[in-house]
Design goal:
This protein is α/β, with parallel strands linked by helices and about 230 residues long. It has one domain: Rossmann fold. It has five helices and twelve strands. The strands form three sheets. It has an eight-stranded mixed beta sheet, with helices on both faces. The chain has a two-stranded antiparallel ribbon with strand order 2-3. A two-stranded antiparallel sheet has the order 7-8. Helix 1 packs across helix 5. It binds ligand PMT. Ligand PMT binds next to helix 1, helix 3 and strand 9. It comes from Cohnella silvisoli. Its EC number is 4.1.1.36, 6.3.2.5. Its cofactor is FMN; Mg(2+). It catalyses: N-[(R)-4-phosphopantothenoyl]-L-cysteine + H(+) = (R)-4'-phosphopantetheine + CO2; (R)-4'-phosphopantothenate + L-cysteine + CTP = N-[(R)-4-phosphopantothenoyl]-L-cysteine + CMP + diphosphate + H(+).
Length: about 230
């Protein structure tokens, strides 16, 4: 038995949804369970990688045998991810990061006052964009290999390719989260993987762990191709 394909490699995976506090008892989040990110982390671990898993709010047990960093907000996830990106060989951004957070986080539980209230939101930092921008100015700009996700409900290919180019990823995994058996909270997923040259592979409905194995197959091939050049 030879060495495992990812032995000696450092992998960073993000999973789950971020939590954006309104006040001590209320928050904004999304339906991400963390299952897709967990499956990617487990598959990398079993291929011999040293895995760091940055988790937001998740359901169920996080995998064993990986280094877990718990965060709540998008800004905390940004700090945790950006601190370790320079040491990584692969980064996979399966987390569902809130694009906006409440402008003010109230120190005390908000009281019921008027009939209607307005919650003002401000943009969160885009972590995947920050990784792409950072990597573009590094001398070894091929490292880490970056896989982004794109959760879409319409014009999936168009939006996924736009995200791939804008956020400067090596691969983007497009998820039509409106399809049954795909996306948030499900045991299975259905995805299309795109690279800079367009569609790489359509992965039909299968367990998230099996999707994760296909993604690692694709990433390993592409990383070796990059190394050979
Ligand atoms: O966790 P599960 O229940 O298993 O569900 C899996 C999933 C549907 C969450 C997953 O497969 C998925 O699609 N994850 C990405 C969700 C998402 O936030 O997509 P997006 O299209 O909004 O973001 C695009 C990419 O940018 C993502 O890699 C995201 O992590 C990243 N991003 C987005 C916003 C932000 N502020 N920072 C980011 O890094």
């Amino acid at each position: 038995v030879g060495p495992k394909p990812l032995s000696g490699k450092r992998v960073l995976v993000t999973a789950g949804g971020t939590v954006e506090r309104i006040d001590p008892v209320r928050y904004i989040t999304n339906d991400s369970s963390g299952k897709m990110g967990f499956a990617i982390a487990e598959a990398a671990r079993d291929r011999g990688a040293e895995v760091t898993l940055v988790c937001g709010r998740t359901d169920g047990e996080a995998p064993n045998g990986v280094h877990i960093v718990k965060v709540n907000s998008a800004r905390q996830m940004y700090d945790a991810v950006m601190a370790s990106v320079p040491n990584m060989d692969f980064v996979v951004k399966a987390a569902a990061v809130a694009d906006y957070r409440p402008m003010h986080q109230e120190a005390h539980k908000m009281k019921k006052t008027s009939e209607a209230i307005t919650l003002e939101l401000v943009r969160n930092p885009d972590i995947l964009q920050a990784i792409g921008d950072w990597r573009a100015i590094q001398p070894d700009s091929g490292k880490p290999f970056v896989i982004g996700f794109a959760a879409e409900t319409m014009d999936v290919e168009k939006h996924a390719l736009d995200k791939l180019n804008r956020k400067k990823c090596d691969l983007i995994v497009a998820n039509n989260v409106a399809e049954s058996g795909a996306g948030f909270g499900t045991e299975t997923n259905i995805v299309s993987v795109y690279g800079p040259q367009g569609l790489v592979e359509q992965i039909p409905q299968m367990p998230k762990r099996a999707v994760a194995e296909r993604l690692w197959d694709l990433a390993e091939i592409r990383m070796n191709v990059t190394n050979a050049q």
